[in-house]
């Protein structure tokens, strides 16, 4: 059971018209580990994410999610909200998608929609205010409060999410995804736009999610310092195919990876080299 | 007329008299061209179908003069208020004290409304007006669920009002069912129609949503108009039974309420009963909506308005969320419709035109999308204002349309420009509507 | 068969009128992203202006029908265009960067204003005109005595539509104004940075849309021989339906949608029932949008995640 990877992607292919964004990509994300998906811009990383989280329907291939209890879900057959609801895959977005007009706390409450919906007897019991729903709501608020504490935003709980600083919004979005109590957390460039201090606290947060809660994480990231520091396993993509995978150390020394980065963006290649030393 | 537009005069630029005169002159020229044919010449179909015409240069001259003068006045006003124009018409201190008063405004308004029949017992006109305003408050609150909370644009809301009204009218006149049996049925039927409208529009956004809801409203009206055997077509349904106080009629008969209570009969009794009936229905709508907002479904509606993609990523079934919003809004519309039918005693398709939908939508938007108090105030302003201009006859809709334009320019985000959170840890802080999204509208 | 051919002709003529109005909706939507609810009333105003200027010219003693029609066309286009400009200036420009529902309600308000303005100014009664363009051709005489007719009036409506469309397509694709319009459609801020006068371009969009609507109004007047203050509402909704059906924002789509609505309406009236012709048109709109959520020729909306 524990030997099985939480997510296995098998020969995933995604075509948009004539353009092949992802070609025969296979990789696995280990349970309770942080797996990073890296590659130069336009390598097809976000496309892979969108296939995993149901926003795109893959052209070919299989995506399997292995639950703790041995159940297996075929993600390529589920569509949008069912992936989050049934397969327990949560995600964040490259360009933050919070509910800006709702408070931080409300954002975290919306994330617990399905659990609260059941507790409220699909609204009917909640409308007349049965005590079981009130208890469930208290628990939901407690969970949300707990997460606000973890991301250090407890004092901003009643502020509109749209009013928070950029870095806070990033962390809130992760907390919101975590409030769905996912089996697999997918993060699309969580460190984008963060300064060094914020990046460090993000690494801290992700490590605590893995360590304390045992949640498996799959992330796309450009910030190599974050990737190299926290990843257990790295998959490198370029032009829609996998060019390398392995531990941070293995990937760092892989000439193909360096070439891929050098061929596109010198700065990033330098970043890869540098964080290796 | 053109002078009304808030052209952004560069801040700090002093605008001299010659500029104002020049602008007014240009406005007058535009007005002259616009009105020369439409007002300067009046056409009319003669007795034998021949078209005749005559000139009205006097009217034309006075209107152009009015535009010239008005343009100067507005330009002077604008200089006096400052370059940002309309926003500052209400000074900041007043706005602040308004928001403070807002906390007490709701309860005060409620108490006043409860007392209206006592205060104005003998003024039938005011009571009728109150009933009318409350009906629109209820419609506004119903549509608010769809537009204000879920952020789905609905230009055909009147369809559900019509479904509710005809459901009660037909069930009552054909089967003799009582109002209290028909009321929930009317709501349910309207809700079913809401879901039927919801299905085709699930994937639509923005203007596609607008036209389909508008088309839906028109379809319902046209079917009612043309299905003569069922609905009586343009003649409508008449003789709709008046509501009873749980079986006790409010009339002059021996079984009537007055006779039972041993008091003298007065037709006002029924009016007052209707007043409290619609008040109760509206308050029910309000109560349910406030409750729903604090339940997961209500939060999901608002989240849907904010960001549909994020909702899907959080495992929220956007299909059922949208459908429940349509159904809930439609149900309240259906209740209001049943009330309308029992109050009027007669309904016809004329009462369910697009203008009604537009009016209710205007109430919701003017109220400040999503704000219950704002909607109530907007309904009071719009319907009350509309009544004030009753004496203007044909000019009434003209004034009404102009008011709609001016109000939108003045307060595009409505009277109540903030959103109240549904849950809080320490303190409920109002959220500025600049942050709140407007959904697919 | 003959009956069908006749209905086809009638449908195409009606569709041409809808198409002319629909262009105004689609253009404004493409550039400003709002539904100009007052556009149907601009069409109605165009009809009235055409009627009044026609009356004036006739009483001035002009007798040459083609000359009169040409003058009427020019006057109607010019004056109605000014109406379009004024409406934009008063009701929409102050709300340019506001949130989306505000200009829409402002437009609905403007539509009420225009409808009732024309009722107040010209009275509520239907204004008839005698047929001005008469005659036509019998295309085919069936054995049962049913003849397929093509009137000169119908030829003129279709011809005018085609000519205006050609002019308009040229305007959008070849002139500087057209280029500015397309630039504003893509990105107003960027267009402004590159020296496009956005305000002027948007004004011109309304002017052109109103001018085309006035032509539609004049065609309506000539074809149906009457105008009234309320005709803008129904025609406006139909034309808007046409624009959405064709894919709002797409010019060929507007014309295609117009023709489709015209044909649906005419054929439904001919074969089923006149009363339900609008129900048919609206139902088909809903059905098309279920399967093609962005209309017939609209660009599919790609959801960027």
TrEMBL record, chain A:
<comment type="function">
    <text>Involved in beta-(1--&gt;2)glucan export. Transmembrane domains (TMD) form a pore in the inner membrane and the ATP-binding domain (NBD) is responsible for energy generation.</text>
</comment>
<dbReference type="GO" id="GO:0015808">
    <property type="term" value="P:L-alanine transport"/>
</dbReference>
<dbReference type="InterPro" id="IPR017871">
    <property type="entry name" value="ABC_transporter-like_CS"/>
</dbReference>
<feature type="domain" description="ABC transporter">
    <location>
        <begin position="7"/>
        <end position="264"/>
    </location>
</feature>
<dbReference type="Pfam" id="PF12399">
    <property type="entry name" value="BCA_ABC_TP_C"/>
</dbReference>
<dbReference type="InterPro" id="IPR051120">
    <property type="entry name" value="ABC_AA/LPS_Transport"/>
</dbReference>
<dbReference type="GO" id="GO:0016887">
    <property type="term" value="F:ATP hydrolysis activity"/>
</dbReference>
<dbReference type="GO" id="GO:1903805">
    <property type="term" value="P:L-valine import across plasma membrane"/>
</dbReference>
<keyword id="KW-0813">Transport</keyword>
<protein>
    <submittedName>
        <fullName>ATP-binding cassette domain-containing protein</fullName>
    </submittedName>
</protein>
<dbReference type="GO" id="GO:0005886">
    <property type="term" value="C:plasma membrane"/>
</dbReference>
<keyword id="KW-0029">Amino-acid transport</keyword>
<dbReference type="InterPro" id="IPR032823">
    <property type="entry name" value="BCA_ABC_TP_C"/>
</dbReference>
<dbReference type="GO" id="GO:0005524">
    <property type="term" value="F:ATP binding"/>
</dbReference>
<dbReference type="InterPro" id="IPR003593">
    <property type="entry name" value="AAA+_ATPase"/>
</dbReference>
<dbReference type="InterPro" id="IPR027417">
    <property type="entry name" value="P-loop_NTPase"/>
</dbReference>
<dbReference type="Pfam" id="PF00005">
    <property type="entry name" value="ABC_tran"/>
</dbReference>
<dbReference type="GO" id="GO:0005304">
    <property type="term" value="F:L-valine transmembrane transporter activity"/>
</dbReference>
<keyword id="KW-0547">Nucleotide-binding</keyword>
<dbReference type="GO" id="GO:0015188">
    <property type="term" value="F:L-isoleucine transmembrane transporter activity"/>
</dbReference>
<dbReference type="GO" id="GO:1903806">
    <property type="term" value="P:L-isoleucine import across plasma membrane"/>
</dbReference>
<dbReference type="InterPro" id="IPR003439">
    <property type="entry name" value="ABC_transporter-like_ATP-bd"/>
</dbReference>
Automatic annotation (TrEMBL), chain C:
<feature type="transmembrane region" description="Helical">
    <location>
        <begin position="99"/>
        <end position="118"/>
    </location>
</feature>
<keyword id="KW-1133">Transmembrane helix</keyword>
<keyword id="KW-0997">Cell inner membrane</keyword>
<dbReference type="InterPro" id="IPR052157">
    <property type="entry name" value="BCAA_transport_permease"/>
</dbReference>
<comment type="similarity">
    <text>Belongs to the binding-protein-dependent transport system permease family. LivHM subfamily.</text>
</comment>
<keyword id="KW-0812">Transmembrane</keyword>
<dbReference type="GO" id="GO:0015808">
    <property type="term" value="P:L-alanine transport"/>
</dbReference>
<dbReference type="GO" id="GO:0015188">
    <property type="term" value="F:L-isoleucine transmembrane transporter activity"/>
</dbReference>
<protein>
    <submittedName>
        <fullName>Branched-chain amino acid ABC transporter permease LivH</fullName>
    </submittedName>
</protein>
<dbReference type="GO" id="GO:0005886">
    <property type="term" value="C:plasma membrane"/>
</dbReference>
<feature type="transmembrane region" description="Helical">
    <location>
        <begin position="12"/>
        <end position="35"/>
    </location>
</feature>
<feature type="transmembrane region" description="Helical">
    <location>
        <begin position="280"/>
        <end position="298"/>
    </location>
</feature>
<keyword id="KW-0029">Amino-acid transport</keyword>
<dbReference type="GO" id="GO:0015190">
    <property type="term" value="F:L-leucine transmembrane transporter activity"/>
</dbReference>
<dbReference type="GO" id="GO:0015192">
    <property type="term" value="F:L-phenylalanine transmembrane transporter activity"/>
</dbReference>
<dbReference type="GO" id="GO:0005304">
    <property type="term" value="F:L-valine transmembrane transporter activity"/>
</dbReference>
<feature type="transmembrane region" description="Helical">
    <location>
        <begin position="255"/>
        <end position="274"/>
    </location>
</feature>
<dbReference type="GO" id="GO:1903806">
    <property type="term" value="P:L-isoleucine import across plasma membrane"/>
</dbReference>
<keyword id="KW-0813">Transport</keyword>
<keyword id="KW-1003">Cell membrane</keyword>
<feature type="transmembrane region" description="Helical">
    <location>
        <begin position="202"/>
        <end position="223"/>
    </location>
</feature>
<feature type="transmembrane region" description="Helical">
    <location>
        <begin position="153"/>
        <end position="172"/>
    </location>
</feature>
